[in-house]
Amino acid sequence: KEYFLIPDKKPVPSEFVQSWEPGAVAGTKFTEEEFAKINKGIEFNIDEFAPGFYVTYCGNVIRATDKKVDTGLKKELNGKKNVLVTLPMDFNTGCIVKKTFVVPEGKTVLKLNVGREMDGYWQLLVQCNGTQIFSKTINEESAPDGSCDIEVDLSQYANREITLELVNQPACWRNSINFTAYWNKIEIVTE
Question: How far apart are CA 191 and CA 188, in angstroms?
Fold first, then answer.
């Protein structure tokens, strides 16, 4: 005869985890630092283009078409020198160009020149300490020749440390699937 012993034990549920923010798989061999790298897409420093800024959550494939995009800093692109090319990781995760710094006293302005593919369409979000302070759709109307200048006043944050995030966010418009962003200029100017 065989006997099966089923212990009388109160069940202990595991920690609740959202499906869109999963933690490490049980028994994983990754450290927290290694696991963080897996979820952040392509990351790189762009000090030579925009001092103190770095890029995170950058993709390199347009998911709908599987077209590869050569993201990163380019010496020349579309007749412009030193162009940063970014692409969101996916339709829900925008690529972030980020810097943490103390805003100087005086009139401080973020100056951008951003562009798009001629069939492209994306949303520029500017966030300060996690709060959106500016938004603009980059498309054929706002950038008919492919790029446009933008200025965002940061003076209200004078003498405070902030984390500034410039987000290349996907946007849906006329069935556009190309959310590639061109950053021709990223400058913080204090007068």
Answer: 10
pLDDT in tens, the chain (191 residues): 888 777 777 777 777 877 777 766 666 666 767 766 665 678 888 999 999 999 999 988 887 778 888 999 999 988 889 999 999 988 888 999 999 999 999 999 999 999 998 888 899 999 999 999 999 999 999 999 999 999 999 999 999 999 999 999 998 755 557 899 999 999 999 98
The residue with tokens 């805003």 is 103
Q: Alpha-carbon distance 184 to 146, whole Å? A: 11
Dihedrals phi, psi of 84, to nearest 5 degrees: -90, 130
pTM of the predicted structure, to 2 decimals: 0.78
Based on its alpha-carbon atoms, the radius of gyration of the chain, rounded to whole angstroms, reads: 22
- β-strand partners of 149: 113
What would the 3-class secondary structure string for the chain be? Answer: CCCCCCCCCCCCCCCCCCCCCCCCCCCCCCCHHHHHHHCCEEEEECCCCCCCCEEEEECCEECCCCEECCCEEEEEECCEEEEEEECECECCECEEEEEEEECCCCCEEEEEEEEECCCCCEEEEEEECCEEEEEEEECCCCCCCCEEEEEEECHHHCCCEEEEEEEEEECCCCCCCCCCEEEEEEEEEEC
The CA-based angle 158-49-151, given to 5 degrees, is 45
